[in-house]
Amino acid sequence: MNNKGxxxxxxxxxxxxxxxxxxIEVLGYKRGHHWxxxxxxxxxxxxxxxxxxxxxxxVFDDDAVIPAQGKKARTEEEVAYxxxxxxxxxxxxxxxxFQTALAHGAKPYVEAGNLTLGDPPLLIRNALxxxxxxxxxxxxxxxxxxxxxxxxxx
Length: 154
What we know:
4-stranded mixed sheet, 18% helix, single chain, 3 helices, alpha/beta
């Protein structure tokens, strides 16, 4: 197989500077290459590089005309089906990440807590917020989703 893993996820920002600042201050991303591309009406775009140095988040300004999955929700309460559901980030401390996000303008969605999923049971610690830009963000502590590796440990 030639797949090396997920390269990036792209989002469109309602408030471009605030979105960049949120991902840098809350999740430790750094701003990498940034550009404009008039042929797509992109005034500003940036590739934010994650702390692992490999996966990225591409952020476009609100006026960019780019292909998108699904459609924008008209209100925060509306759900857009067929669109990306949420972004999940591994964090060292779910509670701290949740509180840091709230301090930077995120709205609580699911408070930090533990979940047990499936059989054999897999313990998950996570929390979810709505970012100031509107995307749903999940904070999750490291977990191995490979059923073969954790079921052999039981």
